[in-house]
Amino acid sequence: MTALPTQDIPRITRDDAEEVAARAYSQLLDLLERLDADSWSTPTDCDGWDVADMVGHLIGAAKGNASRREMLRQGIHGKRRAKAFDGNSLDALNDLQVRDHAHLSAAERITALREVAPRAIRGRVRTGGLLRRVPVPLDTGGSSMDGLPGSVRLGHLMDVIYTRDVWLHTVDIEQATGVAADRSGDLDRIVVHDAVAEWLQQHGQPVRMELTGPGGGTFVQGADGPGIEVDAIAWARTVSGRVPGQGLLAVPVLF
């Protein structure tokens, strides 16, 4: 397989962000529809969250993307409650999202997410040009991994990071329940390759990496770097902090 240098790895752009986001939600909702009743109480890789909690978070995040007022409400709560979450306002915000939807049944969670997802995507893609350049701080502490950048541009958050979040939580639910997501299309490749390019640029070290399975590919940066071979989804779980990594695999990227 031809190795792609960092600069040639396809990235998610503003032009295709809406389509990729819609496909990520579709993959997630298809998986949720196939879960049995017991699966919703299964613990996930995200400490303290079972599958139902994770979906509650995703509904809340989508509602924030769909409504600037709701995003502001959640953001204010996160800032006010950060101290209770090791200073991490995002963890406080996520906790609010989970609690806001704790009363919903499994079927109601699916319905709520299916209804809000299109509005969330529209809310993300309509973010204006000047706002897209604004840096959004990333709190340290709590569940955040050491080594992540201190901020992310709002446009990148809207176009890419929220989609990565949906995609990786689909992986989390798949891992927790043993129910396989539909990986027959190229969504995994699009999301993983984009994250690989960001990860390579972020650490800047020479490496040749072969990712196997859905979303796989071969990538090279610099010369005489170490060789890494790992399953693509296992790579994403590692660099997102779900499982520990060694060497360059201990370098995180934002999901």
Automatic annotation (TrEMBL):
The organism's place on the tree of life at top rank: Bacteria
Signal peptide positions (record): none
Gene Ontology molecular function terms on file: metal ion binding
Pfam family, one: MDMPI_N
Residue ranges of every copy of the Mycothiol-dependent maleylpyruvate isomerase metal-binding domain listed in the record: 23-174
Database matches in Gene3D superfamilies: dinb family like domain
Record's protein name: Mycothiol-dependent maleylpyruvate isomerase metal-binding domain-containing protein
